[in-house]
Amino acid sequence: MTDPNTPSTAEAGTTPGTPGAPGSPDAPASLTARLNQAQPYALGLFRIVVGLLFACHGASSLFGVLGGSAVPAGTWPGWYAAAIQLGAGILVLAGLGTRSAAFLASGSMAYAYFKVHQPESLLPIQNGGESAAMFCWAFALLVFTGPGALALDRLFGAGKTTTVKAREDRGAPVTA
Fold first, then answer.
1. Which long-range contacts (CB under 8 A, 24 or more apart) does 75-84 make?
2. Under the phi-then-psi rule, with left for phi > 0, alpha for psi from -120 to 50, and beta for the rest, what region is 74?
3. Residue 116 DSSP symbol
4. What's the CA gap between 91 and 85, in Å, rounded?
5. What stretch of H or E contains 34?
6. How does DSSP classify residue 160?
7. Is this prediction's pTM over 0.85?
8. I need a labelling partner for 176 at 20 to 30 A (CA). Which of 13, 44, 55, 64 fits?
9. Measured between alpha carbons, how far is 135 from 153 in angstroms, rounded to an integer?
């Protein structure tokens, strides 16, 4: 006898044991597999957006465009920070030398936070350093993850390095 409060498989719209069906043992794995397949593209989109925003910030400080005011050429640290923002932002946006450019960008934002914002107050919300902190950590993430999909590094072979996990998946020996 069936429980009248439990919907039948016909009412639920799935049959028991259907892969990916709600309640089947592999439903979360199916979603996880799909998300894992999209991960390089999501990472590539993240890289493009962060690089574009960073380059725009640098362009506004260097050239006074996009509602910004130009920093006088050669002034420390503003002009140099803007040059790093524009250059590293374009490289990250294009996915060219992503890890190196992201490392430089992350360091410049850490410097900006600790030298410019943090002396005013401890927390970013109090000292106006939210964007510096977010850019710093976003670029730090790109240093470790790489450029993702749609990067020029992949065209030139720099992004084709094989990870330990990929070698393990192929059954190739992994040496440390």
1. 77/111, 77/112, 77/115, 77/116, 81/108, 81/111, 81/112, 82/57, 82/58, 83/58, 84/58, 84/108
2. left
3. I
4. 10
5. helix 27-63
6. G
7. no
8. 44
9. 21
